[in-house]
Amino acid sequence: MLGIRRKVFWAAGAGFKLALYKIIFDRMVMEEHMKKSGLFFLGFLFLATGFLHAQASTKAATRPAVNTDGTVIQVPVTVNKVAALHGFSYEKIVLLGAEDKIVVCGDYHHNLWPWALKVFPRIKEVPAMPKPWEPNMEQMLKIQPDVIFTFSDPAPLNKMKELGFAVVYPDEKSALTLEANCKGMLRVYAEALGGAAVERAKKYNEYFDRKLAMVTAVTNSIPMDKRPKVYFAIRKPLQTAGKNSYIPELVEKAGGLCVTRDLPLTYGKDIGIEQMLALNPEYIFLDHLGARYLGSAQPAEILAGMLDDARLKSVAALQKNQVFFAPIGVFFWDTGEQLPLELMWMAKTLHPDKFKNLDLRKELAEFYRTFFNYELTPDEIERILRNDLPEGM
User: Residue 230 belongs to what domain range?
Assistant: First the structure.
């Protein structure tokens, strides 16, 4: 047999000889290998086929989820590991009953919201990502979360997408209403997490609708010209939000007239001192101004500095001593899922006579019990409402 093969080989042209030699050699090697290790070879084929099948099954075991901007992402049918990088993501994931799935959080989750450390004790054990708005991709590849709840900054977002991560992020354009800010974003988180999270989101959204209806049943009947003029400050006294945000809606649902409602501002934009004097609000609500962060200036100190600013002395709210710090709790009330609490607090502050039966302490306790599975003590309730730290912090 080998003699015939050699004659054919040497009678052929050079190119054909080379190709034929390779075919013959490979065949001989295969025949010899099959004789000696046929079972091994069959076993290898079986394992390889099984691996490819498993790989195909893994790829197929995904489901679609829709982001706030309408883009569709593919997430595992069962989500086991998530990265909570966005500031409000930890609160939302806890509310949805999936805190145990968080394998990395933002470094600020360990120190910016003291009440979160108290109410969500596991948070201290979760590894923290420095600069979570631009996360270390090498670390992320090691962690391999099923879903990353992150920011909408294009550069890091696109990098995560290129690496194949499923990313959920807020669409700034869709966060122009109270409903989009709370219910809409929570629905997106729940859909990405799947399972029981979907039902928990529905439960929250029903709560949101009830509380909104309860407040607006009173405030909708207040004529605009009879409403107190309200200014809402965010990270500093002269930083606010205008018609390109949900803040005017929040103020007006609570029964106020938002003095920045016609300004072409998004959330967190600066205005000048002259504008503040011209707006001349009767009430000023301060979101947080950096207060409550561990090691930062506290509300009384910040407020004292504002009251001592000679330029603001003529503003009606300061003259009437109607400047109020919004409570914070586990996260900022105006940008997280506690927003219904802020709506009720603001409505009662503006119209105490119309909301005599609204018990904020009861509402606060109910919210934490229902959505965070945490029973606030009477002392803790008072501390949150007066914007104080947890005991011992």
Answer: 222-353
pLDDT digits (tens, 9 = 90+) for 294-309: 566 666 777 777 777 7
Residues 167 and 233 reside in one and the same domain: no
Q: Helices (H) and strands (E) in the chain — how many of each?
A: 16, 13
For residue 45, what pLDDT is reported?
38
The tokens of 70 are what?
């309408």
Q: Is residue 310 part of a domain?
A: yes
Please say whether the beta carbons of 241 and 247 come within 8 A: yes
Whole-structure pTM value: 0.82
Neighbouring C-beta atoms of residue 76, cutoff 10 Å: 15
| Pair (120, 189) in one structural domain | yes
Q: To the nearest whole percent, how much of the chain has pLDDT over 90?
A: 62
CATH classification at residue 273? 3.40.50.1980
**Residue 384 and residue 364 in contact, taking contact as beta carbons nearer than 8 Å:** yes
Q: How many other C-beta atoms can be found within 10 angstroms of the C-beta atom of residue 126? A: 19
Q: Which residues are CB-neighbours of 79 under 8 A, at least 6 positions away? A: 98, 101, 146, 147, 192, 193, 194, 195
* Helix pair 378-385, 360-372: axis angle to 10 deg: 110
